[in-house]
Every structure is written in C-alpha cells, then in structure tokens.
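Retro notes (design track)

What went well: tokenization of the new backbones is finally stable.
What didn't: we kept losing track of which sequence belonged to which structure.
Fix going forward: every design gets posted as structure first, then sequence, in one message. First example under the new rule, 317 residues:
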C-alpha cells in the first residue's frame, strides 16, 4: 500500500465517503461528502465504486507529495491545481508519479474540491464508513493535518488513460442558486404565513455556517421556538427561536426540537454546500416526484457515461 504525504491541508481537509448510515439511533451523525454531485463524479471518472472515499478540501490551499504513482481525479471548486508547477484541469483524472507535488490554490468560486484516487483513500473505517465528523472524533478519525499520510492501493486500473468529464456535466458555482424545497406536511410551530414569506424572500449564507448546518440571514419567521424532538435528515429546514432558518447538512445532530419548514433535496444540498458565507440563495417549492426524477436522472448519467480506451468520452450529450 502506498499513498500521499500531506504537506499542507489548507483551511480544512477531511476524508469523506457516502456516510455512516444506520447509527443515528445511537446518536452518531452520518457525515459523508457534502457535495454529492462532485463526489460521485470524482469516483466515476476513476471507475471506483460510488462510495469509495475521497478527500474533501475546503477553500483549497492543499499541497501533498505522491509516495508512488497514483491516478487521481479532481472535481468540484476549481482551485487552479498544479503538479510540479504545471497546471492541470479540473473535472478530470491525471497521473501523479512518485515524488510529484500537487498544489491547490484558492478557488475563485465554490467552496469544496474533491480529490479521488483509484480504489479510494484507505483510511481507517468505523461503523462501515471512513467519513470524518470532526466534532465527534470517533475512532481517531479527524481532519487531515500537515504530515498526515493518506494510504491508497495500487489496483490495475490505475493504468487507465486520463479522462475528462464533458463540460455539460460539470458544475460552476458563481451564480446565486435557487434551491428546491419540499414543504413540510405539517409545519407545526410556525405562523401560517411563514411558508409564503420564506419562499418569496432572498437570504444570505450566515458566517456561522458549516458542515453541521447552513444558517440563513434575512427576513425572520415567526417560530415559537420549540416542538417535540424528532428525527432530522440532510436538508431539513429548522426555524429556531430567533426566526432565522437553518438548513441541516451532513454533520447534523440526529434529532431536532425546532419547527420544520421543509426539506431541501440532496442534489440541491450539494449546490448549497458550494456556497460561501455572504452568498445569496433563494428557494422554490418542489414536489417529491420531481426531486426523485432529478435524482434518478443523475444516477442514469453516472451509469451511462463511459470512456473508450484512449480516455475519450462516448457520451457527449
């Protein structure tokens, strides 16, 4: 087994997969990659399994040195990556040879960049997942530090040619997103006019936002501040006593006692995860069937997108 030696992790870098599911009744947060779109394509480009672990890098600034030849992928926020000083494109795979140094700058737009490797990063697993939830510190799983070693296997498919994701499948993060919301069936604890007030308002991402939840700055809603605690999911929109909505993310708590306005579907949570503090967001109502159809289309694209032996994509539209 070989790997990557981390010289500088940047502001934050954590190993993430699809998350630690089936343990919320024990109080464990699922964790997992915050931008599912970029994460899944980082693995698909390498012919990895959908849940193989990638490195989630926040706001770039990451540098590392290859211990041996590795085939890696880079997706998400474009950090103007360089290998030994030579620029490499985003949303593609490339080879790191022994001693090569990869360096990421600060992205102009977006927040999260994903560095995949053939076979996935082989860090410690706990309860079926390698995902790091920093505040829990489970089984020694913690954010990457300077001097950390990211272990990786050397499977045969590391010899695959370089691949590029078609432009129409890439995401760009400069625009203020309009996120879908599936309304709560019974918005207990909220003023009857709050759903309309929320959907017609524009908000900004608050400075206290993180992988646990994104706080929204804007028109306050009329929450009574508390309901009977119940389970929550990624995308749940809670309204605490100050009336400022909060969208729960991957490192959320497992139950919540605030009124719930609705739920942001997972692919729109991926768009939200790429938003920085101060960035504007708006919302639109969506029904469950439309959100399911969008997710099914995403899964079909992942399955049907293929490359030939020279690395040329066979699905350009």
């Amino acid at each position: 087994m070989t790997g990557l030696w981390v010289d500088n992790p940047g502001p934050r870098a954590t190993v993430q997969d699809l998350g630690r599911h089936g343990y919320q009744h024990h109080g464990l947060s699922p964790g997992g990659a915050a931008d599912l779109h970029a994460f899944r394509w980082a693995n698909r480009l390498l012919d990895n399994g959908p849940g193989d672990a990638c490195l989630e890098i926040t706001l770039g600034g990451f540098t590392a040195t290859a211990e041996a030849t590795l085939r890696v992928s880079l997706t998400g926020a474009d950090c103007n990556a360089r290998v030994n000083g030579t620029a490499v494109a985003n949303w593609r795979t490339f080879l790191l040879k022994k001693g090569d140094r990869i360096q990421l700058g600060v992205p102009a737009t977006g927040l999260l960049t994903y560095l995949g490797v053939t076979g996935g990063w082989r860090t410690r697993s706990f309860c079926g997942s390698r995902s790091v939830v920093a505040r829990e510190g489970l089984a020694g799983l913690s954010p990457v530090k300077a001097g950390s070693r990211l272990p990786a296997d050397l499977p045969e498919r590391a010899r695959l040619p370089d691949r590029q994701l078609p432009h129409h499948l890439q995401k760009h993060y400069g625009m203020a997103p309009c996120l879908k919301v599936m309304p709560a069936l019974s918005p207990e604890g909220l003023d009857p006019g709050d759903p309309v007030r929320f959907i017609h308002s524009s908000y900004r991402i608050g400075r206290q936002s993180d992988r646990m939840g994104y706080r929204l700055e804007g028109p306050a809603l009329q929450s009574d501040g508390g309901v009977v605690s119940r389970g929550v999911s990624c995308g749940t929109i809670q309204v605490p006593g100050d009336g400022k909505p909060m969208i729960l993310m991957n490192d959320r708590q497992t139950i919540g006692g605030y009124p719930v306005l609705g739920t942001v579907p997972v692919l729109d949570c991926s768009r939200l995860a790429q938003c920085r503090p101060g960035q504007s967001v708006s919302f639109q109502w969506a029904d469950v069937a439309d959100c399911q159809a969008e997710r099914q289309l995403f899964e079909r694209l992942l399955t049907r997108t293929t490359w030939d032996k020279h690395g040329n994509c066979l699905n350009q539209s």
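Added context from the reviewer: The chain has two domains: 2-164, 178-286.
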